[in-house]
Amino acid sequence: MDVSIYKQVKSALDVSYKYLTEFMDALPQMCWTADTAGKILYFNKAWYAYTGMMHNQTQGWINVIYPEDSSRIIASWNNSLTTGDYHEEYRIRNSKDGSYRWFLEQAMPIRNEDNEVIIWFGTYTDIENEKQFTEP
């Protein structure tokens, strides 16, 4: 294999990844990526600002989930790795004041031409006001 072609391809992939993460960091809502096994690869800046987790820390995210929601979320996420469908409403702790707010987390897998998952993309939408308005 021609090493120069490999270097060009690697450089192009690095630039694409840089643009992707810059785009995700510019979004006003929290978002993430995960590998095919469900391991979080990346959280954007909004996630770290809200949760107070250390920048580039991707493990331990369950610790910012409301304790009564965490086991349900883990089970649902593990199930989604098989079904390819993930939509959950749950509470996430705000690091600034320790309060929990409701979020709708949605994720979808990106698949290759053989319909195999190559990466997951997920977002969090703050639904606290809607939950308070509709809850008895």
What does this entry look like structurally?
This protein has 136 residues and is α+β, with helices and mostly antiparallel strands. The chain has one domain: 2-Layer Sandwich (Beta-Lactamase). It is built from 4 helices and 5 strands, in the order H-E-E-H-H-E-E-E-H. The chain has helices at 3-26, 45-51, 67-83, 128-134, and strands spanning 31-34, 40-43, 86-93, 100-111, 117-126. Strands 2-1-5-4-3 form a 5-stranded antiparallel beta sheet, sandwiched between helices. The longest helix has 24 residues, at 3-26. The termini are far apart. Residues 16-60 form the PAS domain. Its EC number is 2.7.13.3.
Short description:
It contains four helices and five strands. By secondary structure, it is an alpha+beta fold.
Q: Structural class of the helix and strand makeup?
A: alpha+beta
Just name the CATH architecture.
2-Layer Sandwich
Q: How many individual domains?
A: 1
Strand order of the largest sheet: 2-1-5-4-3
Global morphology: globular
SSE order, one letter for each helix or strand: HEEHHEEEH
Q: Number of DSSP strands?
A: 5
Low-confidence stretches: none
Give the overall pLDDT as a whole number. 93
End-to-end C-alpha gap: 65 Å
Q: Cα-atom Rg, whole angstroms? A: 17 Å
Summarize the amount of helix as a percent range. Answer: 40-55%
Strand content: 25-35%
Q: What is the CATH superfamily label?
A: PAS domain
Q: Give the C-level CATH assignment.
A: Alpha Beta
What would the CATH topology be?
A: Beta-Lactamase
Tally of contiguous helical segments = 4
Largest sheet: 5 strands, antiparallel
Keywords: Kinase, Phosphoprotein, Transferase
GO molecular function: protein histidine kinase activity
Protein name: histidine kinase
Organism: Pontibacter fetidus
